[in-house]
């Protein structure tokens, strides 16, 4: 009988091997996979906007429930990214440094990878927002334009910089846990559940994620 999960040591080795293989990919492939990841994450972001923005009455009566509902739909983006092996900056912030610690890659491979993936994620998110959302008009009717405007203004003006920084720590911690747990799982259903729980937690709690902000 095959175990449904790997041990922590086995997971770390598998993650190292994965990072090593990614480091050998051509730059254009890394960028394209990051582009796809940015678009995939935006699907989850779009669902979150549809649920949260379309629940104004429920938000007033029970804001906690709306956060729970948003947390239930957002993880779909990372599920698709991980199952298809795309490139998301948050996950690479955990895996690529492993290569440097083990001296399996030169130091400059880290900023090169992070820069490629960051701009790939950004480009994919902008494509999704501009073509699949803006041009398609799926959020053109109220209450979504007003909700998005208020949401962006709140995120840009209300939190202090140290609050954003600390929320980012909480979020990235949970995202890396999701990636780690997915790597430890050996079947698709287990991987989905392993990703879902931490991502649901960070969204429902209100932590801030850089890639989610792009989405």
Q: Would you tell me the overall average pLDDT?
A: 91
What share of the residues does DSSP label as strand, in percent? under 5%
Write down the secondary-structure element order: HHHHHHHHHHH
Tell me the major beta sheet. none
Q: What's the Cα radius of gyration?
A: 18 Å
Low-pLDDT segments, ≥5 res: none
What percent of the residues sit in helical stretches (DSSP H or I)? over 70%
Shape: globular
Give the count of helical stretches. Answer: 11
Number of strands: 0
Q: Which class best fits the helix and strand makeup?
A: mainly alpha
Please, could you describe this protein's structure?
With 215 residues, this protein is mostly helical. Helix content is 79%, strand content 0%. The protein contains eleven helices and no strands. It has helices at 8-23, 27-53, 56-61, 63-73, 76-84, 89-101, 109-135, 144-157, 161-184, 188-205, 210-214. Helix 1 crosses helix 6 and helix 4 runs antiparallel to helix 10. The protein is globular, with a radius of gyration of 18 Å. The chain starts with 7 loop residues before the first helix and ends with a helix. The relative contact order is 0.18. The mean pLDDT is 91.
């Amino acid at each position: 009988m095959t175990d449904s999960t790997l041990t922590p040591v086995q997971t770390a080795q598998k993650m190292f091997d994965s990072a090593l293989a990614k480091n050998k990919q051509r730059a254009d492939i890394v960028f394209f996979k990051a582009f796809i990841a940015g678009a995939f994450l935006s699907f989850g972001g779009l669902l979150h906007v549809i649920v949260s923005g379309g629940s104004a009455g429920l938000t007033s009566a029970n804001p906690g429930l709306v956060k729970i509902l948003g947390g239930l739909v957002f993880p779909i983006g990372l599920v698709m990214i991980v199952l298809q092996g795309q490139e998301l900056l948050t996950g690479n912030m955990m895996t690529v440094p492993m290569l440097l610690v083990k001296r399996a890659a030169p130091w400059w491979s880290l900023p090169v990878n992070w820069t490629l993936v960051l701009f790939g994620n950004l480009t994919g998110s902008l494509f999704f927002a501009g073509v699949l959302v803006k041009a398609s008009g799926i959020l053109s009717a109220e209450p979504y334009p007003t909700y998005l405007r208020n949401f962006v203004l709140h995120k840009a003006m209300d939190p202090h910089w140290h609050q954003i920084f600390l929320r980012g720590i909480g979020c990235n911690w949970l995202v890396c846990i999701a990636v780690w747990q997915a790597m430890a799982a050996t079947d698709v259903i287990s991987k989905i559940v392993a990703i879902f729980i931490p991502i649901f937690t960070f969204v429902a709690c209100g932590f801030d994620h850089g890639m989610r902000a792009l989405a």
